[in-house]
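Help needed: design a sequence for this.
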């Protein structure tokens, strides 16, 4: 396999959405990958190799050791280099050359970004998956309420893994544990959401008598009390805004699915709330990105780890503590895209073979020195 083929293979395996597609979880992207390969025989070959690699990891990742993972990557690279295919791996000695070692290292970093972190995550003393809510959170009999009374962004981690970046002066209410089949968040003010994909449990944001529905996407909503406007800005995925306002004793799952406005990636809209129904107001559509996270792609190419952490801190309003001397030689090559913050941290920890703890809005990373 030539250098160009390895670069294409790295490109595909570094895409978080690729795993979903090759495992049959994102059939809506079939056309994208078909167009990506086109009639190019090289791209078709690389695409098939990437699928085989990802599928082989899917079945064996949980019980395996680090040595096994490295062996699998080694065999995959060796087979790809010799043109023998990926599966099943043959029992043969591997003749390493510097370039093949580099390629295997790259694959270990990006191809296992999804699978390996599950292995390492079992060793990680994460104290905040359930305790990451700020101490100021006040629970009523049914919902937890968090209000950002400070002047900086505030990150809130929901029980399903989704991220909420709460603007100053804003408030959200939500269940500590979402019930099966439905995730609801009540918003007063402005927040940016990165929602974990779950087709069986739609995610609803209820604000100013309005209902916004998503499955897995990233978007911002602004709905301030006393202001008859709803702003929605979609960074990725699809957002559905219901045209009918909430009624007393509402049930979001019972609202008519044909009474909606659909917004796709990079689309935005402003809705006027004083009328009988919610309709986008074209004259108010020119809505600039308000938060730095809306402009970031979280794509890194040999980026120093300090720069990666600084970007995450600024985007999410968190503090990341680590030994700067110990990790001074570390860099990151990965596409973290619009996954929630804690998913990004898990992937980075897996790549670094590091451990991490999370308490409120503070993340502590403990890793080995990079070679």
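Sure. Designed sequence:
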């Amino acid at each position: 396999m030539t250098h160009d083929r390895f670069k294409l293979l790295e490109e595909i395996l570094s895409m978080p959405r690729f795993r979903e597609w090759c495992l049959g979880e994102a059939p809506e992207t079939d056309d994208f990958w078909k167009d990506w390969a086109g009639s190019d025989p090289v791209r078709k070959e690389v695409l098939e190799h990437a699928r085989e690699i990802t599928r082989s990891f899917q079945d064996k990742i949980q019980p395996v050791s680090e040595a096994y993972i490295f062996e699998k990557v080694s065999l995959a690279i060796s087979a790809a280099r010799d043109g023998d295919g990926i599966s099943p791996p043959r029992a043969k000695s591997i003749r390493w050359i510097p370039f093949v070692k580099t390629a295997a290292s790259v694959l270990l970093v990006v191809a296992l970004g999804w699978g390996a972190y599950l292995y390492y995550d079992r060793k990680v003393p994460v104290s905040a998956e359930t305790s990451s809510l700020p101490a100021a959170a006040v629970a009523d009999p049914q919902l937890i309420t968090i209000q950002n009374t400070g002047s900086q962004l505030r990150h809130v981690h929901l029980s399903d893994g989704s991220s909420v970046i709460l603007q100053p002066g804003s408030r959200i209410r939500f269940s500590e544990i979402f019930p099966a089949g439905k995730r609801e968040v009540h918003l007063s003010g402005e927040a940016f959401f990165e929602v974990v994909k779950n087709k069986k449990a739609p995610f609803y944001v209820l604000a100013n008598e309005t209902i916004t529905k998503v499955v897995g996407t990233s978007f911002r909503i602004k709905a301030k009390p006393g202001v008859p406007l709803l702003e929605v800005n979609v960074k990725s995925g699809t957002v559905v805004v219901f045209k009918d306002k909430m009624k007393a004793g509402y049930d979001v799952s019972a609202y008519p699915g044909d009474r909606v406005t659909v917004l796709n990636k990079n689309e935005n809209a402003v809705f006027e709330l004083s009328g009988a129904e919610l309709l986008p107001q074209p004259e108010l559509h020119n809505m600039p990105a308000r938060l730095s996270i809306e402009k970031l792609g979280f794509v890194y190419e040999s980026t120093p780890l300090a720069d990666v952490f600084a970007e995450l801190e600024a985007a999410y309003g968190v503090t990341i503590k680590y030994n700067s001397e110990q990790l001074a030689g570390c860099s990151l090559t990965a596409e973290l895209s619009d996954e929630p913050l804690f998913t990004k941290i898990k992937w980075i920890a897996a790549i670094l073979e590091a451990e991490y703890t999370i308490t409120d809005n503070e993340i502590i990373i403990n890793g080995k020195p990079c070679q």
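The two ends are 26 Å apart (CA to CA).
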